[in-house]
Write a structure and sequence with these properties.
Blueprint (H helix, E strand, L loop, with lengths): L1 H45 L23 H8 L12 E5 L5 E5 L8 H7 L15 E9 L3 E8 L5 E8 L8 H10 L10 E6 L3 E7 L3 E2 H7 L6 H19 L3 E2 L8 E3 L5 E3 L6 E2 L19 H4 L8 H16 L10 H12 L29 H4 L9 H8 L10 H5 L55
Antiparallel strand pairs: 1-2, 3-4, 4-5, 5-7, 6-7, 8-10, 9-12, 10-11
Helix pairs in contact: 6-8, 8-11
Length: 469
């Protein structure tokens, strides 16, 4: 009798253990399914509008980011490495709480079917951002020592783009200027800074995809010799200072300001471009190379060997460009070498000494005996057209200061009396708003130019400057 009871008890216990195992496995499957569903929901419902799925080596198009999410998403994007080797590429999906969910291809098995289904809205063969075959090359615009620029067309949205194709040498790797340009531009979003849409990385090339801008200030001034319309100079300079103020507030120096690097759209928008020599300036000050800025637009402190400079480096270039737009000729067109360039500057502004420029004698290349002694002139003596425009000479004189610390900042220059007749709303615009959204703000026809859409006659133009100095 006892033996029979023991047998029944043992059988009952065995059934209970089996039921427990079955229930445990069932709950495990339910939990796993719920976890996968939660992951799918994050990937699909929260990120589908940002074009983040299935992109390899690509900075996402910033114009798809809602206004209230821009700062948050850009900060998260800074951890994305667009130059990672293809074999180790990581697909990153940004969640709403600024976290980054990372899944390495091939190491964690196949993607969830639900994620894969939603990553391509149309079909697996449809064009996507981040893919070389998503852009059609239309014509070559220019070629530099390490990059070629093409006018192109996006197969994703049909818009014109400028493709800066950087050749990668296996023994040299990615040119540091390309890395610098991409890393800086991906975090900058302003109406007066050229927009970086996309980055495409292959074994042979790195392609930066920019918005297409049809001409630059150099070409525009060549087309209209003798100086530009005074009102146009004012609007172009205002936009240049807007863009510079934006990057300077973020401790970024452009370091290569010149007319070729100032793009002009068919609506008259000026955009800073070619950030290959730009640097993020940290605090406290670091020492930088003095081999920056094209000779004509290089400040005297850099010409004399200074390697400790700040935003005042760019402001000298602004002064040179301002004079050139008004006068129609370069302010200091050195024809020989650095010595000749300095002589041209001192001829107008006076040869510096310790009284006018504290510390000038400590600069590596300043040898007083090597320079002719010149007394300073009024700027209108050198460039007579400055006297035709109210407050133009005063603004130019505050930008073209030999002593770097005396130069006006971009933010201060925007408040100069020279701009006092512009609509007050221009100072209230958001970063991404064009000045031409303000009523009655428009470019005037240049001398001998009929009232037509600005710049439409130039069909070739230039998308992005890619010069290397």
């Amino acid at each position: 009798m006892c033996a029979m009871i023991d047998s029944q008890s043992a059988e009952k216990i065995s059934r209970m253990k089996k039921l427990r195992r079955t229930l445990s496995e069932s709950f495990g499957r339910i939990a796993l399914k719920k976890e996968e569903s939660s992951f799918d929901e994050i990937c699909v419902t929260k990120m589908s509008t940002r074009n983040c799925q299935g992109m390899d080596s690509v900075i996402k198009p910033l114009d798809t980011i809602p206004e209230d999410k821009k700062v948050r998403v850009q900060r998260t994007q800074s951890s994305f490495d667009p130059f990672e080797k293809p074999a180790n590429q990581v697909k990153r999906v940004h969640s709403e709480n600024n976290a980054c969910i990372t899944a390495r291809s091939g190491s964690a098995g196949k993607e969830s079917p639900k994620v894969r289904r939603h990553s391509s809205p149309s079909s697996p063969t449809s064009p996507k951002f981040g893919k070389a075959d998503s852009y059609e090359k239309l014509e070559k615009l220019g070629e530099g020592s390490y990059a070629t620029v093409y006018k192109g067309k996006s197969k994703v949205n049909g818009k014109l783009v400028a493709l800066k194709v950087i050749r990668l040498q296996e023994e040299e790797g990615t040119p540091f200027t390309a890395i610098r340009e991409a890393s800086l531009l991906k975090g900058l979003k302003h109406a007066n800074i050229v927009l970086l849409h996309d980055i495409i990385h292959t074994k042979e090339t790195l392609t930066l995809v920019f918005e297409y801008v049809h001409t630059d200030l150099c070409q525009y001034m060549d087309k209209h010799p003798g100086g530009l319309h005074p009102e146009n100079v004012k609007l172009l300079l205002f936009q240049l200072l807007r863009g510079l103020s934006y990057i300077h507030q973020r401790y970024i120096l452009h370091r290569d300001l010149k007319p070729q690097n100032l793009l002009i759209s068919d609506t008259g928008e000026l955009k800073l471009a070619d950030f290959g020599l730009a640097r993020a300036k940290s605090v406290p000050s670091h020492t930088y190379s003095n081999e920056v800025v094209t000779l004509w637009y290089r400040p005297p402190d850099v010409l004399l060997g200074s390697t400790e400079y700040s935003t005042c480096l760019d402001m000298w270039g602004v002064g040179c460009i301002f004079v050139e737009m008004i006068q129609g000729v370069a302010a200091f067109p050195g024809m020989k070498d650095i010595q000749d360039q300095l002589e041209r500057i001192f001829l107008v502004l006076g040869t510096p000494n310790e009284d006018t420029w504290p510390g000038v004698h400590s600069l590596p290349h300043f040898k007083p005996e090597h320079f002719t002694h010149y007394s300073p002139k009024s700027l209108r003596q050198a460039w007579n057209k400055l006297s035709y425009v109210a407050h133009a000479e005063d603004l130019a004189s505050k930008l073209l200061q030999c002593f770097p610390k005396n130069r006006l900042s971009a933010q201060a220059a925007l408040s100069h009396e020279y701009f006092s007749d512009l609509p007050p709303r221009l100072w209230e615009l958001t970063d991404m708003s064009s000045i031409f959204t303000v009523p009655n703000v428009r470019l005037q026809p240049e001398s001998g130019e009929s009232m037509r859409v600005f710049g439409k006659t130039n069909s070739h133009g230039k998308g992005v400057s890619n010069s290397k100095h």
